[in-house]
Amino acid sequence: MPAPVISTHATPGVTSISRWLFNCFVIHDGGAGTPFVVDAGLPSNGRDAASLIRDLYGSATTPACVVSTHGHSDHVGGIQELTATAGGPVLLPRRCQDYLAGAAAPTPGPRQLVKILPVMRDQPFDFAALREMAGAARVAGYGRQAMRLPSPPDGYLSDGDELLGTSGWRVLHTPGHTEDSTCLYHADSATLVSGDAVLTEGGVAWINPELTDPHASSLTEERLRDLEVEHLFPGHGVPLHGSDLLRTARSFRDTPRRRGWAGRAAIALGRWD
User: Fold this and answer.
1) What architecture (CATH level 2) is domain 5-269?
2) What's the chain look like in SS3?
3) What is the pLDDT of residues 108-146, one digit of tens each?
4) What is the per-residue pLDDT across 80-106, written as a single tens digit (0 to 9) for each?
5) Where are the domains of the chain?
6) Mean pLDDT, all residues of the chain
């Protein structure tokens, strides 16, 4: 398997671990010098994050928490591998409690997925990561199947919560992509870990392009544009740094920025609400 793309962003103190478009983040601000992990989506993401924590903090360090921004398989598929090695309480959005109890979980269909083809081109393609994701989806998360996890989570996240064991990280419920979509916001450093509520494409933030609920997406967009964000860590796409990243972001109503074959296919085949 190719090596992951690992990048450390000294300000605000986040290491991104990416295999193709699957991003996992180790945040070096878990309170009392302890990191926490967001979106260990692939089993290898989980192993890579555990290895990074061990190398930087020592084998005795346990993450303050292990968070998923929503329950899609590509955001929970590596939790078991991470916690088996590094430990840490697993926290999921509150709506996942209903999904794990059997409630239906709306998820974007093919005509939504095709809209983000240009996002997929911004990171080096990795067929092994795609194959790994297909395997992980059979045992964790939801997509075309009911939500499942190898082990139950340790807790659930609600809008406005301060993230367990961290210094000032706040939970934002940001539905639209899915009902359970969640962001993590750190006001002091103007940092947003956005899950799939905000992606990036061609060096620009793109709010909720792949969605299940246009009305919820509109409300989420209004909320996010009010945030001061200078550091953006998306579920898919490359991290961005700069001023007013979300106030200048493209809307879910906007078509892709790039007009290569991926952009043309996205416009022609996608459903643009």
Assistant:
1) 4-Layer Sandwich (3.60)
2) CCCCEEEEECCCCEEEEEECCEEEEEECCCCCCCCEEECCCCHHHHHHHHHHHHHHHCCCCCCCCEECCCCEHHHHCCHHHHHHHHCCCEEEECHHHHHHCCCCCCCCCHHHHHHHHHHHCCCCCCHHHHHHHHHHCCCCEECCCCCECCCCCCEEECCCCECCCCCCEEEEECCCCCCCCEEEEECCCCEEEEECCEEEECCEEEECCCCCCHHHHHHHHHHHHCCCCCEEEECCCCCEECCCCCCCCECCCCCCCCCCHHHHHHHHHCCCC
3) 998 899 999 989 888 999 999 999 999 999 989 998 788
4) 999 999 999 999 999 999 999 999 999
5) 5-269
6) 93
